[in-house]
Specification:
The longest helix has 40 residues. With 458 residues, this protein is of the alpha+beta class. The N and C termini lie far apart (79 Å). The strands form two sheets. A five-stranded mixed β-sheet has the order 3-4-2-5-7, with helices on both faces. The chain folds into three domains: 160 residues, Globin-like (Orthogonal Bundle); 162 residues, Alpha-Beta Plaits; 107 residues, Orthogonal Bundle (Arc Repressor Mutant, subunit A).
């Protein structure tokens, strides 16, 4: 082995040794960091032991995340630091100035770097290993501090907008069917595009925490933290320079986004879907229900009830059920009871169950044939099969069910049976394909007639 190769190997071994030692001493290192932070930042020193314990836990998470990135020799991502959003929000709620918060982060990074230098020692390989770590440590620090500052500012903006009692009172007034007429409540309504005379199309959104109950191991307000963080994110979905009126109302988040010029319900649903994905990446899972489009504030109580009702369609692990993306046909199927399912001919039920277990080709053929307006060749093109194969499938369906797909009544009966099967949470195993498709509303789009009927404001 050449001298150069030996040196590279020695530096690599030293790098691994330094990081391994730091990983073993993370908790002690975090204690040093918190002690230094309280010594140098009066705002932190003035806080009690519970606050200091929370800061210590946050530092430990940062150190472990940083060490994981360094040991795996990769670039830090948002997924590595999902814990920072809630921490930033708690500091903002506690009144810690942003300058102090960022300074505390920098002190934590300084303590970590000093530990790296100390463990590097005075050998050439050790010093070179420390120098190699400097650049990725700076990248981590830049990325994490930027993400943290943005999360802090996002919540601070949200808190500033919601600190006034008028915003919460406004929600209650609107949900009760009233309209603000004067004072600060009226000003708040107008600021969110919800003036009493406005007939701007709007939606009502309800979101609740999904999944298992939020752990209270680190504090009883963790659920409240998650709701406020989610509420702040939803408030940013407004377009055309208007913030969405969004407040935490007991265990739920209620938001009333306005559809400004050039903004349709599909676009807004896309934004809300993206908010859910972003929050889920940070450990906050939501179930969200979105109403149909309403024209003006007078219809908000009805829209609120719609949003609450559609929450029942969301799987336990969370997701979005958006009425603007669900056809009336699908909605009726999702709301159907067992009696409706018992009305389905057992021959149809048997065929669909067997077909689902075998991949669903017959079900797909029925859907494609209906979507093609009973045009066999067009349906075959959609399915990418030969027309003779499509014809064979139609004969099999008729033989098994006694229904001809060329009969409108028979075709509707088959489509209803398929929709009822999709809507059942106990069919299809863990994937629950149909229900997931409706709950996330990302795989289907409505026909033009359905779009007009459901998207027209009341």
């Amino acid at each position: 082995m050449s001298t150069g190769s030996s040196t590279v190997a020695a530096v690599g071994m030293e790098r691994t040794r330094i990081l391994s030692e730091l990983l073993n001493d993370v908790e002690a290192l975090a204690t040093t960091a918190v002690t230094t932070i309280t010594e140098e930042i009066p705002a932190y020193a003035a806080r009690g032991p519970d606050f200091h314990a929370e800061v210590w836990e946050h530092v430990v998470k940062h150190y472990r995340a940083k060490l994981a990135v360094l040991l795996e020799e990769r670039t830090v991502t948002t997924g590595d630091i999902t814990f920072t959003r809630r921490a930033a929000m708690r500091r903002a709620r506690a009144g810690v100035p942003l300058a102090d918060y960022i300074n505390a982060f920098r002190i934590g990074q300084r303590v970590f770097w000093e530990a790296v230098v100390e463990r590097a020692g005075r050998t050439y390989a050790g010093r070179e290993a420390a120098l190699e770590l400097a650049a990725p440590l700076m990248r981590y620090s830049d990325f994490a501090s930027t993400h943290t500052a943005n999360a802090y500012m996002e919540f601070q903006q949200y808190a500033a907008a919601e600190a006034v009692r008028e915003s919460r009172d406004l929600i209650e007034t609107l949900l009760a069917g009233g309209a603000p007429t004067r004072g600060r409540e009226l000003a708040a309504a107008q600021a969110h595009g919800l003036g009493p005379d406005a007939r701007t199309p709007l939606l009502v959104v309800i979101a609740v925490l999904a999944g298992p109950p939020v752990s209270t191991a680190i504090g009883p307000d963790r659920g409240a933290d998650a709701r406020h963080a989610a509420c702040a994110a939803i408030a940013r979905t407004g377009g055309n320079g208007t913030r969405t009126l969004s407040v935490v109302r007991q265990s739920e988040i209620v938001a009333i986004p306005v559809l400004g010029p050039g903004t349709g319900p599909e676009e807004l649903c896309d934004r809300l879907q993206e908010v859910l994905r972003s929050l889920a990446a940070e450990g906050i899972r939501l179930a969200m229900g979105i109403s149909t489009v309403s024209a003006g504030t007078a219809h908000i109580p009805q829209a609120y009830q719609e949003a609450r009702a559609v929450l029942d369609f969301v799987p336990e692990e969370g997701g979005v059920a958006a009425l603007p993306r669900i056809t009336p046909f699908q909605y009726l199927a999702l709301k159907a009871d067992d009696t409706a399912r018992h009305l389905v001919d057992p021959r149809i039920t048997s065929l669909l169950a067997e077909d689902r277990a075998r991949g669903g080709v017959l079900t797909a053929t029925i859907r494609a044939f209906a979507a093609a307006d009973l045009n066999l060749r067009a349906a075959a093109d959609t399915l990418q099969i030969h027309p003779n194969t499509a014809q064979y499938r139609l004969r099999r369906i008729q033989e098994r069910t006694g229904r001809s797909l060329r009969s409108i009544n028979d075709l509707v009966e088959l489509l209803v049976a398929i929709a009822l099967q999709d809507a059942r949470p106990d069919l299809g195993g863990a994937t629950n394909t149909g229900r997931e498709r409706l709950a996330t509303a990302t795989n289907e789009r409505r026909g033009s007639a359905d779009v007009r009927s459901s998207h027209e404001p009341r």
